[in-house]
Amino acid sequence: MGETCNRRQDARGVSFVTMAEGLRTCGEKGGTKPWAVRCVPLHMIAMTLLFLTLLLGLALVPLGLPGLWVMLGATLVYWIVVPAGSIGGITFGVLAALVVVAEVLEFTISGRYARKYGGSRRAGWGAIVGGIVGAVIGVPLPIIGSMVGAFAGAFAGALVAELTVARETRGEPIRVATGALIGRVVAAATKVAFGMAMVVWVMGAVLVGRLSGNG
C-alpha cells in the first residue's frame, strides 16, 4: 500500500481523510501547510489491534474466561481483513489445535492430580466434572467468579466423588480434593503458557511476513 492519503476539506477548510478513500487513519501534523497530515498504513492498524486483542485474550485466561478463543477469533479476523498478512491456513490450524489441547488439559490435569494424591478413578472424574460445572456456574464475584468456581468445583467434585467410594479402598478425601485443586492451578498455568506461545507464534508470523514484504 502507498503512503499517500486522499484529502478533502470540509466547510471550514479542515482537511480530513476517510477510510473508504485512503484506508488510512490520519491526524493533524504540525507544519507549514495547514492541510499536512500524517497517515498510518492500514496494516499497522491491523497489527496493533491484533496484538492488543491477543494480550486481552491472554489476560482473560487466568481468570477462567475463554481467552484462548478470543485470541483465535482475533487471528481469524486478521487473516480475513489482511489476507496477505502472513496468517495462513497452517498457522490458523496449529493455533486451533493448541486451543483444543489446552482446553482438554485444563480439566484433565485436575483429575490426574486427584489420582496422584491417592484418589480413585471416580475422584478423578469428579474433579473434572466439578471443575467444568464450577467454571460454567461460577461464584458471585466480579471478574474472577469463573476462576474461583472452577477451583472450588474441582475440589468439591473430587471430595464428594471420593466419599462415595467404599471406606476400605478410598483415599483420604481432603487430601484427594486438595490434589484436585492443585491440579486445577497447574492446569490454569499450563493454559496461560499455551496462550503465550500463541502470541509469540502469531506476532512472529506477522512480523516475518512484513519484513519479507508480504501483507
TrEMBL record:
The chain crosses the membrane at residues 42-65, 77-102, 123-141, 147-165, 185-208. Keywords: Membrane, Transmembrane, Transmembrane helix. InterPro entries: DUF456. It holds the Pfam family DUF456. This is DUF456 domain-containing protein.
